[in-house]
Amino acid sequence: MTSAEQAGEPIRDFSSPATWGDVEQVRHSLETKIDTSVGDVKAQISDVQAQVAEVRTEMARLEMHFETRVAGLESRMETGIANLETRLLRWSAGLAAAAGVAVIGFLVGILQAVD
């Protein structure tokens, strides 16, 4: 016994031409629901595609922003390194000059002592 029979509902024979209209109505109802569901899914796909496009645009903007920042930092680092090299060169030249003066002073002292 089926659940419909247990509930006291008559079982319809869908092979009978009298019930074909019911079958057509059910088929049409299901087709409408499927079409609506397919339309909803297509709309959701379009929304996701739009969101993906927005994310890609934002990623490109951020990439350009960070490339600009990195280029600026790189330029500042290069300038800082060049300034440091200049200071080290001046410091080395000053140290060499001081060492030269000290050597000359030492030699002058030796020459004065010998005289």
Name a few traits of the molecule.
single chain; 115 residues; mainly alpha; rod-shaped
Structure commentary:
The protein has 115 residues and is mainly α. The protein has one domain (17-114). 86% of the residues lie in helices and 0% in strands. It contains two helices and no strands. The longest helix is centred in the middle third of the chain and has 95 residues, at 20-114. The chain is rod-shaped.
Distance between the termini: 139 Å
Number of strand segments: 0
Q: Helical segment tally?
A: 2
Strand content: under 5%
Structural domain count: 1
Largest sheet: none
Q: What spatial form do the alpha-carbon principal axes imply?
A: rod-shaped
Strand and helix map with partners:
Elements: H1 3-6, H2 20-114
Structure described in brief:
This protein has 115 residues and is mainly α. It has helices at residues 3-6, 20-114. The protein has 2 helices and no strands.
